[in-house]
Each structure stands twice: as C-alpha cells, then as structure tokens.
Amino acid sequence: MYFRISVASHPRFALVLGQGARRFHVAAALNAKAKVAMSRFEPNSSINYDQLRSNIDIVRKRLNRPLTLSEKIVYGHLDDPAGQEIVRGRTYLRLRPDRVAMQDATAQMAMLQFISSGLPKVAVPSTIHCDHLIEAQIGGAQDLQRAKEINQEVYKFLASAGAKYGVGFWKPGSGIIHQIILENYAYPGVMLIGTDSHTPNGGGLGSICIGVGGADAVDVMAGIPWELKCPNVIGVKLTGTLSGWTSPKDVILKVAGILTVKGGTGAIVEYHGPGVDSISCTGMATICNMGAEIGATTSVFPYNHRMRTYLEKTGRGEIAAVANENQDLLVPDSGCHYDQIIEINLSELKPHINGPFTPDLAHPVSDIGSVAEKNGWPLEVKVGLIGSCTNSSYEDMGRAASLAKQALDKGLKCKAQFTVTPGSEQIRATIERDGYAKLLRDVGGVVLANACGPCIGQWDRRDVKKGEKNTIVTSFNRNFTARNDANPATHAFVTSPEIVTALAIAGTLKFNPETDFLTAPNGEKFKLEPPTGDELPARDFDPGQDTYQHPPADGSGLRVDVNPQSNRLQLLEPFDKWNGKDLEDLQVLIKVKGKCTTDHISAAGPWLKFRGHLDNISNNLLIGAVNIENDAVNKIRNILTGEFGGVPDVARYYKKHNVSWVVVGDENYGEGSSREHAALEPRHLGGRAIIVKSFARIHETNLKKQGLLPLTFSNPADYDKIRPDDKISIVGLKSFAPGKPLEAIIKHSDGSSETIELNHTFNETQIEWFQAGSALNKMKELQK
C-alpha cells in the first residue's frame, strides 16, 4: 500500500511512503514554492528499516546476545551479515554506508581521486559542502563575497565535478557541512561517512556518522564495501538533569578530561540512561561532534522524543513517524555489554573549560582563574568566539543572546572582541528574524559567514602580533597550538557558547558567572542569570537563500577541466607500486617530539587554498612538528649536505636524489582532522613508512590508503633507540601478512646497528593496497 503526501499539503517536501517496505522515495517533481526546502533531497535517497532489521536479526542470532545501539546500526549495514566475522577491536568489517558527505577542502582531493578511478557516476547519494575556504576578516557578507572571488576556480571545479558525477553541491554560504547534514540528511539508523573528522555530529540524531579520508569516500562512492575495524563500545550513562549554567558541551568536556585525546581510539561512544532526555537533539549533536577529540570512531545517542521533535521541525515528520514504528532498532537492547562504562550525573556536572593547547585538559570554570594564574596563562580574554560546527544551533545562539540582553539591559558590552559564526544559512536567517543576531551584534559581536572560519584557522586576526602571548575562549572543538590564528603563543580554551559569552563580557578568565558580579556603568553590581533559550524556534525555521545545486539526471556529457597551469588544482598521477623487495636504508627525515596532530603534519589556515594541488600543498609537510634534535619546528638536518632546512625542502632534496625516507613519531600520531593530505604529502615527497608509538584511527587508515606503511613499536621504549641521522631498513615484506610483525634494522652513523620489532594492523586487502602502491591503484587493477 502506498500513499502520497503532496507538496501543496506539505510545502517542505513530497515523499512517497511504501507501507510494506517502510521505504521513503523522494518525489522528483517539485513546485517553485518547495524548491528551497526540497532541494536538499536526492531522488535516490531512501530509508529502509526493513533491510536494517533483517541484517540485525541475522547478526543477533549469530552472536546470541543483546546488542548495543551502535552495534545495531553498524552491523545492520554489513555487506555480508551472515558471513562476516565479528569480533570487537579485532576483525575488519565490510560495510555499506548509505551516503557520503564531503567538505570543500577535502572534496577537491576526493573528487580528483574519483575522477582518476574512471567511474562514470557515484553509486550512493553524495554531497559537497563549501564551508572551509571562507576566511573571517570583516563580516559575513563581505567575507563570503571575497571567498567567492578568490576561490572561483575551486568552486567551479567542485560544482562541475558534482554535476558530472551525480554529487549534490552546497554553495559557499550554505553553512557548515555538519549542520547541513543534521538539518537535512541525518536520521535515526542511517550510516553516513564524511571527509571531515567532526562528521560524528550526526550522532545527535541517532545516526552512525564517521569521519574518513577522501580515499575511503571514493570507495563508498564507487560502490565498493567500506572497511572499518570492528569498534569497541564505550558506554556513557547519563543520569540527572541539565540545568542552570551547565550545558551539553560540558558533558563532552568532562568526558574528554576522563578519556584524554586517545582514550576513545577504536571505539564508538554510546550515550544512554535517563539523563539523555534532558538534552536537546542539537545538544546531543554537540556532544557527538567533539567526540572526535577523544579519538572515538564516532558517538551516538538513542532515538527519543527530542530527536522526533527536531525531525518534525526540520520538515521530516514522516521520517519521525517511521522511526517511531521502528524504535526497537534505534535504542540499545536491555542487558547489552559495553567494553567500558563512564557514569555522569548531569545534576552534579559543573560548567567546564578545557585547554590551553589540548582539548582534554579539563577544568571547572570555577577553577580556571586560579589555575591560569598558577601556570602563568594570560588572564585577559582578548577574543570570545561562538559558533562553529560544534555549537551553532538555534538553542546555542538563543542562550548566548539571553546573556547579551542581560548585559545590554545594564548598559554593558563585551570587554573582549566577540565573534558569532552561524552554522548554516537556515540558522543565520532564523536568528536574524527572531532578533538573536541583533542582540549579539549590539553587545559587541561581529556575525561572520556561515562557514568554519576561525575554528579551522580561517581567521585574518590582526589584534595581536604573532608570538604575542594572549588568551582566547571559543565554543569550538579543537585548540591545538596555533590552530585558530597561526599564533603559537595564543592560549585557546574551549567551552560552551554561554561561558564564552559571559567571559567575553567580563573580559577575564577570573570571572565565574555562577558566583561573581559584574559592574554596570552606573556602579551597580549584578550577577548574570543562568542562560535561557528555546530548543527550536516557535515558528518554522526560515530556510534563507537557496544555496543548493542538484546534479542533473545525466551528467555524462559534461566536462570537468583542470588547467595544467593552475596552482590550486592538479590532476593526480598514480603512486609507484611496491618493487617486491624490503625497504632498505630509509633515511630518518625527522624524529618528531611530542604531540603531532594533522595540523602539525599538514597545516590548514592559509594552506587550505592548495588542498586540490598535491605538489603545492606538500610545501607544508610537517612544518609544525617539533624536531627532537633541536626542539625547533621546520628545521631539520639534511644528511646529504649537512645543512639544516625546512622539512618539505629536505624531503624534496631526498626525493630528487632517490633517497627514500621514514618519519619517527610519538603517541597518537595524526590525531585531529581527517585530512588525507597528511598522508598524501609524505607519499608524494618520497616517504615510505611512518613509525610511531601509536596512531590516531583516521590517519593510520589514510596512510595505508596511499601505499605507506604505518607501523608501531612493539616496545614503545624503542622510540629512544632511533637517532635523527639513522637509516632504517624494514624487512620481512616478502612475507607481509596480517598479524605478523615486521623487523626494523636501525643503522647508526657510528656503524653500529640494532634490530627491533614493529607491529602493524594491515589486513589482507590493505596489504594489497601497499603492494599496488595505493588503494586507488588497486581499484583500477580490479576494473581491468
């Protein structure tokens, strides 16, 4: 039995619901009135809970135990639920995600790789989102126009590639990828992969959304099963109720303090318990978003009435209705097992602020002033920044605006500079309509473009000089050294939008809004009342301008041109195949000391403009990493000349002289962004292996995809045996096999040598990537 919901009766969209199959198909015919709201959906979008249920039933019978929510959704997307070996933390799962999303900085390389594959069209619904290339400088409208002019070539490439290969294109100004996904594409039970590490944001709507590199996205777009190591499951039980100054952001700030930046590696964090119902859908998304900072594969919440309300308010009431009928699939089974359990009483949780320089250094807001004084951190707050993909919902903006109004009513404005980044065009238009934007401007704020902006280093900051010690507070997710403004002396702290707003008004870290008083211009002492704000607008969201380009039904006749003289875009050449021999006498390029994130390996900010040009972007290889030889950044010894030079310069010199090299690193190497450039660049410049104490998940996979060897010390203390001028031979590759360690012969300049054992996590398919030279090379081999 089928029935149609007409556009006239439901202006948001027209859907066809198959009662038996529980499948939605979006109707292709739309009238002009529905265009803006409907344009986000593709005709081949579908929701099929029957298939999910069938797969879950097969797996539950095989495992004969209750399943967690994340297991239901992940195992429900298995390519072969009857035959797949399933062991948490050990086996590799072959999965069939429902869709792919790419932000513009990573989409360039992903689409270049897809073009190289020779395939005519993507096999699953996919979208490109223009959010990373807009620099915050003056204000929203001016910055957006400037970005369109500067990035015209890249935007044209992405739009035309999307049209040719069947990929939807969200234009610059549409908003941040994760907010667009939450508003349009995420739904309970879906599996989505995105080429950005904060893709887990969609877990706030009961989705399994996982950040990956571009090569993984190409696999899924090509219709190839996608591999993921079977994740462990960390349960976070929430009790009590959020209230007062405590916000959803404080949950993940607390969890980050408990688990640290690598405590979630290889695991999905699954929130459950009675406290969940006190958190809004967008609040749950905030928590899942920042789960990337603990290394988690993703995070997820169980389906509840808060999600249903959000679906209804964003024009997806029919999806909510079918989710209600299948709610047993969208919550954990009673008695399911978690590998680790953390319990948090929301009624006792206090507002937190984390940093500086790492997102897991957690402090109660009440303590940060004294802690900063003790450590010599600057107390004056120079800039407060709210928004970003983590905290830019209608509720976030409303709660911040409620504080702005209190200050304005007393005649106060922000002592610090204050910026506001709406998460999407829909959020921008709605907060303008409802007066929130005006309040935030009136208190001293500058409303920036609907884009990532300062969160990813797209910030033309001019109030301090580089090297000047200063403090900023943000509602962002990351605060690595120099990430936001390219100034390594900036002490960046992450917290909730409410606390950012309060500290921007007060102008100091020594202000605790729960207990401290502000002074009005007339001398009156007053306290800020706890923030308030509606979870969702009383009226429908205002969609704002139409910023979506739908791909044509047949784009085969379209051309995608890349100018060979371009300094922004470059077609890819295949990497060389493995020659069948051990890797002999690899020169140590750099022995990295301490934290080395993807920001250290491939910086963002001004380098974002080269994300589509592999040779140009490679000029930032490891320029932020600390060289253990001299504690300097971007200063390493060229063993062939004896002179010191920049890391990319020395790497290029080695490549020119046919010297292959290796990088040696510390713990959690490659944490942070999903950017695969951090793997493409070392491969392009002649690297063959990365040897470290431990890897972050996405980066390890990205290295494998590009034909590099990510290896870990069997004994972490062996890191100390390697000297910066050593040569290393990796032996045992002729019998390279899953679970079988390799050996490294370390050759010192004094003529002595040592042999150590190196572990790896390659499976048979991944070994074939190495042998072929890359996963893309292997894909092409299979097409012949």
TrEMBL record:
<keyword id="KW-0004">4Fe-4S</keyword>
<keyword id="KW-0496">Mitochondrion</keyword>
<dbReference type="InterPro" id="IPR018136">
    <property type="entry name" value="Aconitase_4Fe-4S_BS"/>
</dbReference>
<dbReference type="Pfam" id="PF00330">
    <property type="entry name" value="Aconitase"/>
</dbReference>
<keyword id="KW-0456">Lyase</keyword>
<dbReference type="GO" id="GO:0051539">
    <property type="term" value="F:4 iron, 4 sulfur cluster binding"/>
</dbReference>
<keyword id="KW-0809">Transit peptide</keyword>
<dbReference type="GO" id="GO:0006099">
    <property type="term" value="P:tricarboxylic acid cycle"/>
</dbReference>
<dbReference type="InterPro" id="IPR050926">
    <property type="entry name" value="Aconitase/IPM_isomerase"/>
</dbReference>
<dbReference type="InterPro" id="IPR036008">
    <property type="entry name" value="Aconitase_4Fe-4S_dom"/>
</dbReference>
<dbReference type="GO" id="GO:0005829">
    <property type="term" value="C:cytosol"/>
</dbReference>
<dbReference type="GO" id="GO:0005739">
    <property type="term" value="C:mitochondrion"/>
</dbReference>
<dbReference type="Pfam" id="PF00694">
    <property type="entry name" value="Aconitase_C"/>
</dbReference>
<comment type="function">
    <text>Catalyzes the isomerization of citrate to isocitrate via cis-aconitate.</text>
</comment>
<comment type="similarity">
    <text>Belongs to the aconitase/IPM isomerase family.</text>
</comment>
<feature type="region of interest" description="Disordered">
    <location>
        <begin position="520"/>
        <end position="540"/>
    </location>
</feature>
<keyword id="KW-0816">Tricarboxylic acid cycle</keyword>
<protein>
    <recommendedName>
        <fullName>Aconitate hydratase, mitochondrial</fullName>
        <ecNumber>4.2.1.3</ecNumber>
    </recommendedName>
</protein>
<feature type="domain" description="Aconitase/3-isopropylmalate dehydratase large subunit alpha/beta/alpha">
    <location>
        <begin position="71"/>
        <end position="507"/>
    </location>
</feature>
<dbReference type="GO" id="GO:0046872">
    <property type="term" value="F:metal ion binding"/>
</dbReference>
<dbReference type="InterPro" id="IPR001030">
    <property type="entry name" value="Acoase/IPM_deHydtase_lsu_aba"/>
</dbReference>
<dbReference type="InterPro" id="IPR015932">
    <property type="entry name" value="Aconitase_dom2"/>
</dbReference>
<comment type="pathway">
    <text>Carbohydrate metabolism; tricarboxylic acid cycle; isocitrate from oxaloacetate: step 2/2.</text>
</comment>
<dbReference type="GO" id="GO:0003994">
    <property type="term" value="F:aconitate hydratase activity"/>
</dbReference>
<dbReference type="InterPro" id="IPR006248">
    <property type="entry name" value="Aconitase_mito-like"/>
</dbReference>
<keyword id="KW-0408">Iron</keyword>
<keyword id="KW-0411">Iron-sulfur</keyword>
<dbReference type="InterPro" id="IPR015928">
    <property type="entry name" value="Aconitase/3IPM_dehydase_swvl"/>
</dbReference>
<dbReference type="InterPro" id="IPR000573">
    <property type="entry name" value="AconitaseA/IPMdHydase_ssu_swvl"/>
</dbReference>
<dbReference type="InterPro" id="IPR015931">
    <property type="entry name" value="Acnase/IPM_dHydase_lsu_aba_1/3"/>
</dbReference>
<feature type="domain" description="Aconitase A/isopropylmalate dehydratase small subunit swivel">
    <location>
        <begin position="587"/>
        <end position="715"/>
    </location>
</feature>
<keyword id="KW-0479">Metal-binding</keyword>
